[in-house]
Design brief:
about 150 residues, globular, mainly alpha, single chain, 6 helices
């Protein structure tokens, strides 16, 4: 690894850590999903490049991140959502185990797709809600009702 690459990784790490320290729980979850996505992509790349040790490291990192996501769940506040996400995270962990043990490329791709879908959903939650402009029919705006058959 070149010095420049090392410095870039160091900067990204410091940026991620500062986001976690100063951000909300929502920001922490988003950072976890970004890290999970990066680990899964790295595992996929190491699998293509025939680097099993690096692939194992990336899969192990992804497993730890999924455990971290499980720790963020609060089933008491939102029981259906919390339990559904708990099952989904457990499923993702099981599929990563299968990807590792059976060298199942499809399992890794499936977890990557689930990660991207969940990440997009969490990003949408962080966007401000813009109020919709109320749309009224023209007849109502003029405060009188008209119809083609009225004279």
């Amino acid at each position: 690894m070149s010095r420049r690459t090392h410095l870039i990784h160091l900067y990204e790490s410091v940026q991620r850590d500062s986001d976690l320290m100063t951000g909300s729980k929502l920001k922490m979850i988003q950072v976890l999903f970004e890290s999970l996505n990066a680990s899964l992509l790295a595992a996929q790349g190491h699998g293509l490049n025939q680097a099993p040790e690096l692939k194992l490291q990336s899969l192990s990192s992804a497993q730890r991140i999924i455990k971290g996501l499980q720790l963020t769940l609060d089933s008491n506040r939102h029981p259906p959502l919390g339990s559904n996400l708990a099952y989904l995270y457990a499923y993702m962990g099981m599929r990563l185990w299968q990807a590792n043990v059976h060298r199942d490329v499809q399992a890794l791709s499936e977890v990557l797709l689930l990660t991207r879908t969940l990440s997009d959903a969490w990003k949408k939650l962080s966007q401000p809600i813009t109020p919709r402009k109320e749309i009224r029919p023209m007849a109502y705006q003029n405060r009188r009702l008209t119809a083609p058959y009225m004279a």
